[in-house]
Amino acid sequence: MEARLDLDGNPIRPITICMIGAGGFIGSHLCEKLMTETPHTVLAVDVYNDKIKHLMEQPAGGQPHPWVGRIQFHRLNIKNDSRLEGLIKMSDLTINLAAICTPADYNTRPLDTIYSNFIDALPVVRYCSENDKRLIHFSTCEVYGKTIGSFLPKDHPLRKEPEFYVLKEDLSPCILGPIEKQRWSYACAKQLTERLIYAEGAENGLEFTIVRPFNWIGPRMDFIPGVDGPSEGVPRVLACFSNNLLRREPLKLVDGGQSLRTFVYIKDAIEAVLLMIENPDRANGRIFNVGNPNNEVTVKQLAEIMTEVYSKVSGEPPLEVPTIDISSEEFYGEGYDDSDRRIPDMTIINRQLGWNPKTSLHDLLHSTLTYQRKTYAEAIKRMMAKPTAT
Ligand code: NAD
Ligand code: UDP
To answer: What gap in Å lies between CA 297 and CA 309, rounded to an integer?
Structure first.
């Protein structure tokens, strides 16, 4: 591999990264990127490894992967495993991705959500601070909560002003709903972890970067219920809608699907993370929004585009009634609430790392739904053909 340079023209030194939550959606893409395009070593920590097995197993009958020896899997639960500190000490950088991060859990398993997103992150922050190790911590755009504009009357002209809805790392307030709306347990736990990391930086000199992902989507996100996850499980919207399309059932629009989201392709977002890893002087002490402000749609529009793209990918005509409305109470249960709109301000990441997302919503859905069909269509067909027990 020829010498790689950072954004300031300096050669990049190979490092060892302790990646916690490496077996998840984002972790699997980050491991893939680090193995195929960099000389870095990854100590991959997770309780599962299905999504990164392909990087560690030798291809059948073929040559070993060129990165053999640069990725090691450590199956451990960070809640209660004393090996964690040793792995952090052995590394130059720790990246913490571990979390419960599916909205269906926030109001139904609020204790697990708070423990996972706050309490379980504490030792990671402490070990990094005490051992002078750099930390890249994954937070969420959900810390912003609701937009200021959402509190104005529907037709108020100020709703059109960007400062009432664009989310800025250094200026926007974090507006969460009431405690009985347990949806906000996740955002609140993530926010406190961010504040703790920031304080460790200010008082003890911890070198940190905080990432706020805005709806990163793509292959390997979550699971398809009944195939590689529990039949009654509710994953995030990409997997919910993929599941509906694969089964030829209507897509469910929670409260009419009026909430707005911006979706970014996982492969674009991973480029931003690699820039953070390899440009510590530009990334340390920063909080970064990572999203694609150009890919904004309502959830209803997302359902319509996915239906159209899936029909092209599969050659199957769309259903006559492609979507149905469902109340949030029925879909998620009591205590659900929603972020109304999420547009990332890109000034800071642009200035510090020169990063911009590239992939349009249509293109990212085309490649993702091609993957979903290739990976799951046969398994779903077989499952649906099985007689159900009476
Ligand atoms: P994911 O659920 O696919 O990955 C999380 C991984 O962490 C899983 O593999 C899980 O097994 C592991 N994990 C959880 N608890 C653990 C523990 N106690 N010990 C060891 N491993 C544990 O989720 P993801 O989409 O890859 O998200 C990664 C991070 O990014 C999370 O912190 C999440 O809150 C944040 N995030 C992601 C998005 C997104 O768009 N995907 C949006 C906002 C925030
Ligand atoms: N949603 C929906 N139907 C589904 C799953 C989700 O209408 O089958 C909505 C959900 O209410 C939210 C949006 O899609 O408004 C995005 O949900 P996701 O689970 O991806 O997470 P979020 O962006 O809220 O963190």
So the answer is: 15
47 lines ligand 1 (CB under 6 A): yes
Q: What sign does the dihedral 129-46-218-191 (CA atoms) show? A: negative
Is 40 touching ligand 2 by the criterion CB < 6 Å? no
Is residue 46 in contact with ligand 1, taking CB distance under 6 Å? yes
CA distance 261 to 267: 18
Round to whole Å and give the CA distance between 276 and 94.
12
Where exactly are the structural domains of the chain? Answer: 99-377
Strand partners, 244: none
Residue with tokens 């739904």: 369
Q: Which ligand neighbours the alpha carbon of 245 most closely?
A: 2
What tokens appear for 24 in the block? Answer: 């998840």
By most ligand atoms within 8 Å of CB, the mutation choice from 223, 299, 301 for ligand 2 is 299
Pocket test for ligand 2, best of 254, 306, 339, 368 (most atoms within 8 A of CB): 254
Closest ligand to C-alpha of residue 219 is 1
Domain covering 99-377, topology: Rossmann fold (3.40.50)
Q: How far apart are CA 140 and CA 237, in angstroms?
A: 16
Whether the predicted interface score ipTM is above 0.90: yes
What are the pLDDT tens digits along the chain (390 aa)? Answer: 568 999 999 999 999 999 999 999 999 999 999 999 999 999 999 999 999 999 999 888 888 999 999 999 999 999 999 999 999 999 999 999 999 999 999 999 999 999 999 999 999 999 999 999 999 999 999 999 999 999 999 999 999 999 999 999 999 999 999 999 999 999 999 999 999 999 999 999 999 999 999 999 999 999 999 999 999 999 999 999 999 999 999 999 999 999 999 999 999 999 999 999 999 999 999 999 999 999 999 999 999 999 999 999 999 999 999 999 999 999 999 999 999 999 999 999 999 999 999 999 999 999 999 999 999 999 999 988 887 665
Q: Is 186 a catalytic residue?
A: yes
